[in-house]
Design goal:
alpha/beta; ten-stranded mixed sheet; three-stranded antiparallel sheet; 10 helices; 28% helix; 21% strand; disordered N terminus
């Protein structure tokens, strides 16, 4: 049977730095983590080893930074520095997924291609099995996902070190990551909104969702549905008293992700549009070549995109890449969780404003392409809820956006749902191709 288990934020306990809360609780959590490791470890670790051997040999080695300051999260810092890094260059922090490492992420994500092209520093943070048995960033542990603590504090220190050691512009720091790295991206945007101007969450999870081992898995699948106001409050509580400006946020998610289900893209949208004081109906929609990725943009009154959602069709859990040498191509697919599709790093670099282009606010309301077909899904109510197309309350399922009652929440009731605009679903049985 082929390897299909994606890299995901499988929780585990840091063995080297015990947490508070009593011996019995630590033993219970350790037992749960051990069970997770036994259940998934063989599938996760062995393929990652094989994948590492498939990394292109021509890839440039990263530069390790031995001493970057306070490191309460026991992380390792690497950098990719272009040959001609300009003064006051931007910096992008990149966070790998579970079972991965910094070099693997650098070799396959394509970020270095655009760092060399446009002149910005990439900081790769790396965690270890001493922190988490599956080398996941601990986005769900309170000792690591709070301002001034653990892994979050270590990554913040890396940004400060980049400014002092490489002369980067502290006002142009961005962060992106995959899966557990995407969830930790959410942590950093919430805990340090004054540090990061923007972030890109790839197959990630909203801030404030997981608080322990069990809830972390629930966040991943079937996902957690909260109101935009509740999600936004979680962000505000991460840095009490901070009133903005808030980071801009790009969300990338595969339509067929079985590990971190697509519902999380909706919840991330709800979280960050509410933080910015916006509604959840997009101001502009479009599609991106070459695979018709569906983009929804949420704009300020001045026409600036502060939140965008990119729904990538036909892919599961991973970073979308497009190997090649074209201007919009990047990355490699020699390992798991880097999926041939669209070069997300190209569009993320563009969203961060690092490619030298300036996008003027539209002078007229944008018009969607008239031939753009609506996306349709036929599935049971259980699968619709699991995929984030519906919610469940009181034993019934309701279409996300329209609120239409789909009937009992089970595997026996089936409906076809149409998505238009993105994130808004209506019953369309018999009216979809």
């Amino acid at each position: 049977m082929p390897y299909v288990t994606p890299s995901h934020p499988a929780p585990a306990v840091r063995t080297g730095r015990p947490r508070g809360g009593g011996g019995r609780l630590r033993r219970l959590v350790a037992a749960l983590a051990a069970a997770v490791t036994l259940a998934t470890g063989a599938a996760l670790v062995a393929p990652a080893t094989e994948a590492r051997a498939a990394v292109p040999r021509a890839a440039a080695a990263l530069e390790r930074v031995a001493n970057f300051g306070a490191n309460p999260g026991a992380l390792t810092m690497y950098v990719h520095r272009p040959a001609a890094l300009p003064a006051n260059a931007p910096v992008v922090v990149a966070l790998h997924g579970c079972t991965q490492n910094a070099q693997l992420y650098a070799d396959n994500s394509g970020l270095n291609t655009f760092a060399d092209r446009h002149g910005f520093l990439v900081v790769y943070a790396e965690t270890t099995t001493a922190n988490n048995a599956n080398k996941c960033f601990n986005w769900f542990q309170t000792g690591d996902n709070r301002r001034g603590q653990g892994e979050a504090a270590s990554i913040r220190q890396m940004v400060a070190h980049a400014t002092s050691a490489y002369g980067t512009d502290p006002a142009r720091a961005q962060v992106t990551g995959l899966s557990a790295g995407g969830a930790m991206t959410s942590v950093l945007l919430a805990a340090y909104p004054e540090v990061f101007a923007a972030g890109a969450v790839v197959a990630g999870i909203p801030y404030g969702c997981g608080v322990d081992v069990i809830s972390a898995f629930g966040c991943m699948s079937p996902g957690v549905d909260r109101t935009p106001a509740a999600w936004a409050q979680a962000v505000r509580d991460a840095h009490p008293g901070y009133a903005g400006p808030w980071p801009r946020v790009a969300i990338w998610h595969g339509d067929n992700d079985p590990t971190v289900v697509p519902r999380n893209a909706d919840e991330l949208r709800d979280q960050w549009t509410a933080v910015h004081g916006l509604g959840q109906t997009p101001d502009r929609t479009s599609t991106l070549a070459p695979n018709n990725t569906r983009r929804s943009e949420y704009l300020t009154a001045g026409g600036r995109t502060v939140v965008e959602v990119n729904r990538v069709p036909g892919i599961g859990h991973g970073t979308p890449v497009a190997p090649g040498t074209g201007p919009q191509q990047c990355g490699a697919t020699g390992t798991q969780h880097f999926i041939a599709s669209i070069c997300s790093s190209y569009w993320i670099t563009r969203f961060f404003g690092l490619d030298g282009t300036v996008t003027e606010p539209p002078t007229e309301p944008p018009v969607d392409p008239p031939t753009e077909p609506a996306a349709c899904w036929t599935a049971s109510n259980y699968e619709h809820v699991r995929a984030g197309r519906a919610t469940t309350t009181g034993g019934y399922a309701y279409a996300k956006g329209s609120g239409q009652n789909l009937g009992l929440y089970n595997t026996f009731v089936t409906h076809t749902l149409k998505e238009t605009p993105p994130g808004h679903y209506t019953i369309a049985t018999g009216s979809c191709p």
